[in-house]
């Protein structure tokens, strides 16, 4: 006997993917990006959300590291080299990063909208 069940899309609202596209968007627009700035942006944006959103420094820095490993961003340390004091690591977007962002952001946003649509249907079914 086959069961019928309602299946909601998974892995669309992926924290790391959101960080990836957010960071690339900021860089693509020419904004300065460093780890603490991204962390602060996310904390500010989600501080009043009805559910806690997983904002973690380890995920932010892991995402920046992955973007650099993929060749989508470059980084350099700012600070006083004479005193050997590094203050913050600043990121810039590469041509590969621009291509990745331009070629994938629409699909990601479309998937988020589809997920929201399904969730709206499910809520409507229950109210």
What descriptive keywords fit this protein?
single chain; alpha+beta; Arc Repressor Mutant, subunit A; two-stranded antiparallel sheet; 2 strands; 56% helix; 13% strand; globular; WH-like_DNA-bd_sf; PadR family transcriptional regulator; WH_DNA-bd_sf
What does this structure look like?
This protein is α+β, with helices and mostly antiparallel strands and 127 residues long. It has one domain: Winged helix-like DNA-binding domain superfamily/Winged helix DNA-binding domain (Arc Repressor Mutant, subunit A). It has 4 helices and 2 strands. A two-stranded antiparallel ribbon has the order 1-2. The protein is globular and about 65 Å long. The two termini are 30 Å apart. It comes from Clostridium intestinale URNW. InterPro entries: Tscrpt_reg_PadR_N, WH-like_DNA-bd_sf, WH_DNA-bd_sf. This is PadR family transcriptional regulator.
Overall pLDDT, averaged? 85
Give the CA-CA distance, first to last residue.
30 Å
The global form is globular
The CATH topology is given as: Arc Repressor Mutant, subunit A
Major β-sheet, in short?
Answer: 2 strands, antiparallel
Beta content comes to 5-15%
Evaluate the radius of gyration. 18 Å
Which series of helices and strands comes N to C? HHHEEH
Helical content stands at 55-70%
> For this structure, what is the CATH homologous superfamily?
Winged helix-like DNA-binding domain superfamily/Winged helix DNA-binding domain
Assigned CATH architecture: Orthogonal Bundle
- Give the strand tally: 2
By DSSP (H or I, 4+ residues per run), the number of helices equals: 4
Q: What is the multimeric organization of the chains shown?
A: single chain
Low-confidence stretches: none
Q: Under the CATH scheme, which class?
A: Mainly Alpha
What count of structural domains? Answer: 1
Question: In which order are the strands of the major sheet placed?
Answer: 1-2
Question: What is the structural class?
Answer: alpha+beta
């Amino acid at each position: 006997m086959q069961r019928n069940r309602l299946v909601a899309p998974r892995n669309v609202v992926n924290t790391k993917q959101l960080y990836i596209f957010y960071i690339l968007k900021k860089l693509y627009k020419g904004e300065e990006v460093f780890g603490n700035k991204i962390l602060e942006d996310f904390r500010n944006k989600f501080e009043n959300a009805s559910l806690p959103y997983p904002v973690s420094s380890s995920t932010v820095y892991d995402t920046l590291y992955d973007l650099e490993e993929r060749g989508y961003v470059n980084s350099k340390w700012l600070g006083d080299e004479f005193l050997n004091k590094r203050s913050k690591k600043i990121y810039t977007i590469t041509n590969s990063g621009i291509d990745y962002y331009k070629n994938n952001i629409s699909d990601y946003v479309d998937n988020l909208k589809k997920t929201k649509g399904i969730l709206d249907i499910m809520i409507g079914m229950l109210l």
